[in-house]
Amino acid sequence: MKIDIIGDIHGCYHEFKELTSQLGYKWDSGIPLHPDKRILGFVGDLTDRGPESLKMINIVWQLVMVQKKAVYTPGNHCNKLYRFFLGNKVQITHGLETTVAEYESLYKKDQQSIRNKFIQLYENAPLYAVLDNEKLIIAHAGIKQKYIGKQDAKVKQFVFYGDITGEKNPDGTPVRKDWAKNYTGTSWIVYGHTPVKEPRMINHTYNIDTGAVFGGKLTALRYPEMKLISAPSTMPYLEEKFKQFD
Fold it and tell me: How far apart are the first and last CA of the chain?
């Protein structure tokens, strides 16, 4: 299996196009397809905060649902958007407001189209993707070894939010334990969720969320080559959004 896994995009379509072009994908048909049968993988959080969230939904829906040329696993922002589209009461904050503003600017029939596409994409997505005979796992915020193969509420919370303790940092963000530091499995776990300045590789895990929407870069991990490729962000740089690990 040859797959290029891309970190949290958050509506950064320009960076996504730039990165996939660097990876050798051709855009002749309006979506990125690779001449050598490589496919794309997405760690979730396609939308929110960035300028072109709906365009990213359209592209990933086409790649996954129509072309079958990509693997998509949802993130916490995807889950919240899904609940919004179902009509559930959600707080339109933490970046969702940008996606909702784009959505509300559309004609009614276009709203219905994008809503239906995202619901279909989300409902057909695995909570986390187990690939290449369990040698590779894509999970939005990561996954513990003991959770692989399970789908319960505890696993779902971990995959969406990481190893949260229930406590809050002074800035209001949740306190998260560094699960990757204690990971002992042999499967490669590729994830995002927590922005880091450089991709973090530790104990057979890769965090490839390099904060494209916060002015960092958009990063892809090529598998099985385990080669990292990035495209610079066009967004304003926000130093405080990046996590430092000991």
Answer: 34
* Per-residue model confidence as pLDDT tens digits over 62-112: 999 999 999 999 999 999 999 999 999 999 999 999 999 999 999 999 999
Q: Which residues does 184 contact at the CB level (< 8 Å), separation at least 6?
A: 145, 203
Question: How high is the pLDDT of residue 42?
Answer: 98
Round to whole Å and give the CA distance between 218 and 211: 7
The Cα–Cα gap between 63 and 209 comes to 21
Asked whether 76 and 106 are in contact (CB, 8 A), the reply is no
DSSP H helices, the chain, are 13-22, 53-61, 76-85, 96-104, 108-123, 153-161
Alpha-carbon distance 56 to 4, whole Å? Answer: 16
Band of residue 174 on the pLDDT scale cut at 50, 70, 90: confident
Quote the CA–CA distance of 205 and 246 in Å, as a whole number: 16
Does residue 145 contact residue 185 with C-beta atoms inside 8 Å?
yes
pLDDT single digits (tens) 128-143: 999 999 999 999 999 9
pTM tops 0.85: yes
> Could you give the CA distance from residue 68 to residue 61 in angstroms, rounded to a whole number?
9
- Which residue, among 223, 147, 133, has the nearest Cα to 187 in the 3D structure? 133
